[in-house]
Amino acid sequence: MKVSARNIFKGPISAIKTGIVNAEVAVSIGGNDSLVAVVTMESLNALELKTGKDVVALVKAPWVMLMSEGSDIRLSARNSLTGTVKSVEVGTVNAEVSISLPGGSEVASVVTKEAAAELGLRPGVPVTAVIKASNVILGVPA
Amino acid sequence: MKVSARNIFKGPISAIKTGIVNAEVAVSIGGNDSLVAVVTMESLNALELKTGKDVVALVKAPWVMLMSEGSDIRLSARNSLTGTVKSVEVGTVNAEVSISLPGGSEVASVVTKEAAAELGLRPGVPVTAVIKASNVILGVPA
Amino acid sequence: MKVSARNIFKGPISAIKTGIVNAEVAVSIGGNDSLVAVVTMESLNALELKTGKDVVALVKAPWVMLMSEGSDIRLSARNSLTGTVKSVEVGTVNAEVSISLPGGSEVASVVTKEAAAELGLRPGVPVTAVIKASNVILGVPA
């Protein structure tokens, strides 16, 4: 498998909460970080997802919102991964930002050039990557 | 809080419709416009969302679809904000479009350069920003 | 209607599965391909969606993930459309990729420049477009 998604996290499922239509699946991605995905019950069953099973969690870079100085706000998005900026590549409209997490993994985000400037994103700056659980795609070996 | 999301709407919650897993939250964003967000019941409770409470509604610019001459179609997306193009910044692949809403707020969208050309987007042109309710992140003071 | 979404599929609804809050709607988009959309029951009723009814299915290009050599993985995302790369336009940060499907339609995706290079995307290369059902917007004539 090769995917365009810049974020490919690997790890075991740490928890599953099932509903009628959807399920919430938490994946341990290293360090103390975990990523929650919302998938349909149909996918949960088709992929035979179970606690302890190793999965990949895929997130496209434009689906990652960045936040700094976030101590004064609480968000409805389920995933907040705090780390430091590793690199910023600036284009005409967009910028791609790489973030190092304490556990060793990295998060990639595409934001507007303007946003990167406003948040003062440059290597070493602390930043939080916010990801909606519904924007995480899970995969298992075929 | 500083966020990369180009769309930060502030206003009071005007209505909440609860389900078993998800809730729909309508936020008044000025003028006669409102924005509907779908959040989990868990987030609704954790953020103590109630009618009348002031919240911020965050939407990344690539999550905003633009439409013109839309009078002949009805969409499944819950949010349609009609205004006029304020500015267009064109890159190699993408273009960032700012739209002024009648109520005074602005909406930012990133579309392909090709799309901006096809829709004839330039300052003063009427355009509708379409946003799926599941792509709206709500925030409250910590 | 003119929309910024680069993916506009037209076809009849082939199946509807209803839940309490959401419904899954499958649309035949030509060839043997179909696209599944998740919409709220409210939208299903408001748009009077029924099997056989012609609809448009809209997907923004940044919502399309690309995958190659995908035979070793199964994903939670409901839609996988396999075709061949038709063209790649590369910017500073992003690249826009057009994919021809066997049934004659095309899929557009915006990925990072880096992803396009890693996947070796160039005209003629086989590739799969992965689209989450929750990222498909349905439309009907007004």
Describe the structure.
Chains A, B, C: This is Transporter. The structure is a homotrimer of 142-residue chains. The first copy, chain A, is built from 2 helices and 12 strands. Chain A has 142 residues and is mainly beta. Chain A has 2 domains: 7-60 and 132-139, RNA polymerase II/Efflux pump adaptor protein, barrel-sandwich hybrid domain (OB fold (Dihydrolipoamide Acetyltransferase, E2P)); 61-131, OB fold (Dihydrolipoamide Acetyltransferase, E2P) (Beta Barrel). In chain A, the strands form 2 sheets. Chain A has a 5-stranded antiparallel β-sheet. A 5-stranded antiparallel β-sheet of chain A has the order 6-11-8-9-10. The longest helix of chain A has 6 residues, at 41-46. The N and C termini of chain A lie close together (10 Å). Chains A and B meet through β6, β7, β10 and α2 of A and β1, β4, β9 and β12 of B. β6 (65-68) of chain B pairs antiparallel with β1 of chain C.
Short key terms for the protein model shown above:
Mo/tungstate-bd_C_term_dom (chains A, B, C); 55% strand; OB fold (Dihydrolipoamide Acetyltransferase, E2P); homotrimer; mainly beta; five-stranded antiparallel β-sheet; 2 domains
How does the SSE layout of this entry go?
3 copies of one chain form a homotrimer.
Chain A: E1 2-3, E2 7-18, E3 22-28, E4 34-40, H1 41-46, E5 54-59, E6 65-68, E7 73-75, E8 79-90, E9 94-100, E10 106-112, H2 113-118, E11 126-131, E12 137-141
Antiparallel strand pairs in A: 2-3, 2-5, 3-4, 5-12, 6-11, 8-9, 8-11, 9-10
